[in-house]
Amino acid sequence: MIKTDDEDNVIFIGNKAPMNYVVAVLTEFKKSDDVVVKARGRAISKAVETVEIVRKKFLSDVSVTDIKIGSENIIDDKTNKPMDIPTIELYMSSK
Amino acid sequence: MIKTDDEDNVIFIGNKAPMNYVVAVLTEFKKSDDVVVKARGRAISKAVETVEIVRKKFLSDVSVTDIKIGSENIIDDKTNKPMDIPTIELYMSSK
Questions:
Q1: Tens of pLDDT along A31-76?
Q2: CB nearest to B69's CB, from A42, A51, A71
Q3: CA quadruple B6, B75, A67, B23: dihedral positive or negative?
Q4: What is the pLDDT of residues B59-87, one digit of tens each?
Q5: First to last CA, chain B
Q6: A86 and B49: CB-CB below 8 Å?
Q7: How far, in Å, CA of A68 to CA of A85, rounded?
Q8: Do A42 and B41 touch (CB under 8 A)?
Q9: Nearest CB partner across the interface for B45, out of A44, A56, A70
Q10: B90 inside 8 A of chain A by CB
Q11: Collapsed DSSP state (helix, strand, coil) of residue B75
Q12: Distance of alpha carbon B20 from alpha carbon B25, whole angstroms
């Protein structure tokens, strides 16, 4: 299952193939006018890819209204030391 | 060498370690108030990481003024077929 936030309109990008997240975004747009795609670390590229596939191949009326980047401090699994990983939030709207 | 655009203030993210691009951005900010970081495909995550390292560790007065995403149509090396890859442009300013 693809993880969603407490706020139902947030899609978190993980390790699956991009098309899984494309379907999740399309499903979300049936319920909501606004969908947020979030990712961190290496999944950031896949988040951008997901949003682009949605816009180019499926929902041409959807626009990207805002893009935010940031950092999260996590404990690295291998070294057990804190490290910063980059994050992205892509805000999409069909309005 | 790290590739820059005709417009001198553009840094293209490639296959090197993020710190190489951090240094390139810092060097560019000595010459210019505005620097653009561009990437496509998997390098998009590294582009966001580069911008975050610059802001958090080196230049706290630099802000991200705009972020654009898009797609480029390229011929895939392996399959010889056209495919879309996602792109990102991160606009930074010290003003």
A1: 999 999 999 999 999 999 999 999 999 999 999 999 999 999 988 8
A2: A51
A3: negative
A4: 999 999 999 999 999 888 888 888 899 99
A5: 28
A6: yes
A7: 14
A8: no
A9: A44
A10: yes
A11: strand
A12: 9
